[in-house]
Amino acid sequence: MAEPDGIAGTVDFKHWADEGLKERSFERWKELRAELGRSFDVESGLPSAEDATWRYLTTYEDILDALRDYKRFARGTLQPGIERGMPLIPAELDPPDLGKYRALLLPPFSAAAVREIENNIRQHCRALVERFVDDGHCDFVSQFSTLYPTGVFMDLMGIPQKELPEYARLMEIITRSPLDDSGNQRVILEAEQEVAERVLAIIAERKATPGDDLVSQLIAAKIDGAPMPLHELLSMCMILLRGGLDTVVTQLAHLFAHLAQTPALRQRIVEEPESVPKIVEESLRFHGITVTARRTASDMEVGGCPIREGRRVILPIGAANRDPSKFPDPDRFDPDRRNGHHIAFGAGPHSCIGIHLAKAELRIALEEWHRLIPEYRIENERPLRYFMTDAFVGVEGLKLEWDVTAFAA
Ligand code: HEM
C-alpha cells in the first residue's frame, strides 16, 4: 500500500460509493468536514503509484485556492475514475494553451449570445411541459430535465431534433450511471463512444456543407493560425455535450425536488416572478452538484498537510458551497442571502463557459413550469434518495405529481 503523504492513514471513502452521500447528499460533506477536517486521503484502488491515494479537500477556502492556482494545481482529469486516453479540451489543458481554446468558446456562450436564443430555449421548455401537464404526473428526469437542455443544445450544434430521443437515451446513461465496481465505467465509456461516433459524423457532414451552427464555427476556427485536427474538434464537442447537459439535468432535478417540498418558495415564484434569478442563484449554491479534480504540480502542502507532486486532489464544490465559515447557516435555502460568491461554476482559469446558458435554462424552466404547473409534490411523498457518479451528485428517480383539476378551475 502506498504511503499517504503527510496525513496519518487513509480513510475508506469514495464519493461515488458513499451511502451517506446517497442518503443525505450535500449534508454529508458537512459530516466529513466535521469528522475528518480540512482534508483527508483515501486509497483510490488504482494501480499507478501517483494515483494510489487521493486527497479530498472540504473547505471553501482550500477548494477555491485549488481551482484558482493553476501553477500549483495543474489540470487533473475532470472525472476521478475515468481514463479516456484523450484529453478533454479545454477542460484538461493548462494555460497558456487553455486560453486559446477557451477564446473560441466564450463568444458563442456569452450573455449576449444566450439572449439571442432565449426564445428558442423557452419554446423547448414550454413544449415539453405542455406534453404532460394534463397527465397530472411526470418522471421529471426522463420526461423533462434530460430532454430540455439536450434539445436546446442540439439546436446549437445543428443536430436535427428527430435525433433527440437517441441523444437523450445516451445522455441518461452517461449522466446517471454511477461509477462503481460493477462495470459501469465501461457502460459510460461505451455510451460516450456512441456519442463520439455521432459527433464525428456531424463533423464530416459540416466539413462538406458548413452551416451557422457551433460545429461549423469550430471547424472554421484557427488555433495558432491552423485549423484544429479532428481529435481536437471531437474533444471540444464532447466536453460541450457533457458540460452542457448533465450539469443542467442534475441541477434541475435538485431544484425541483426542493421546490416540490417547499410550498412557500413555489408561491414566491408565482407571485413574485422577479425573484426567480435569486432562487436559481441560491439553488446553485445550495445544490453544489459538481465534484472535480486537479493534480499537484510539485511537492507542497494542501489542506494543511504535505502532499507529493502529481497527486490527485478531489474538489467537491458542494462542500465548498456549504462551508459555514463562508456561508452563515449554510444548510438553509435562502434566496435573499447577501454574501454570494458561491463556486457552483468553478473559479479561475477553468471556470464554466456555459454559465449564462445554464442560468438562462434554469430561470426559464422555473418561469415556464410554474406558469402551467404552480402546485406539485413528490409522487407518494416518497423520501428522496441521491445517486453519485464520478462527477455529480444526482437525484434518484424523481417523480412529480399534481392535481390537474386544480389548474383547470
Ligand atoms: C448548472 C449548470 C452547470 C454547472 C453547475 C457547471 C459547473 C461547472 C464547473 C464547476 C466547471 C469547472 C470545473 C473545473 O474547474 O474543474 C465547469 C466547466 C465547464 N463547463 Fe460548466 N456547468 C454548468 C453548465 C454548463 C453548460 C450549460 C455548458 C455549455 C457550454 C458548460 C460547459 C463547460 C465547459 C466547456 C467547462 C470547461 C471549461 C474549462 O475547463 O476551461 N457548463 N462547469
Question: Care to describe what's here?
Answer:
With 409 residues, the protein is an alpha+beta fold. Helices cover 48% and strands 12% of the residues. It contains 17 helices and 14 strands. The strands form 5 sheets. Strands 1-2-10-7-3 form a 5-stranded mixed sheet, sandwiched between helices. Strands 4-14-11 form a 3-stranded antiparallel sheet. The chain has a two-stranded antiparallel ribbon with strand order 5-6. Helix 6 (118-132) packs parallel to helix 16 (355-372), helix 8 (147-157) packs antiparallel against helix 12 (230-260) and helix 9 runs antiparallel to helix 10 (184-208). The chain starts with 18 loop residues before the first helix and ends with a helix. Bound molecules: protoporphyrin IX containing FE (HEM).
| Strand residue percentage | 5-15%
Low-confidence stretches: none
Instruction: Outline the biggest β-sheet.
Output: 5 strands, mixed
Bound molecules: protoporphyrin IX containing FE
* Number of helical regions: 17
Please provide the count of β strands. Answer: 14
What spatial order of strands do you see in the largest sheet?
1-2-10-7-3
Please give the radius of gyration in angstroms. 21 Å
Q: Indicate the percent of residues in helices.
A: 40-55%
Mean pLDDT: 89
Q: Structural class, from secondary structure content? A: alpha+beta
Alpha carbon gap, first and last residue: 67 Å
- Overall spatial form: globular
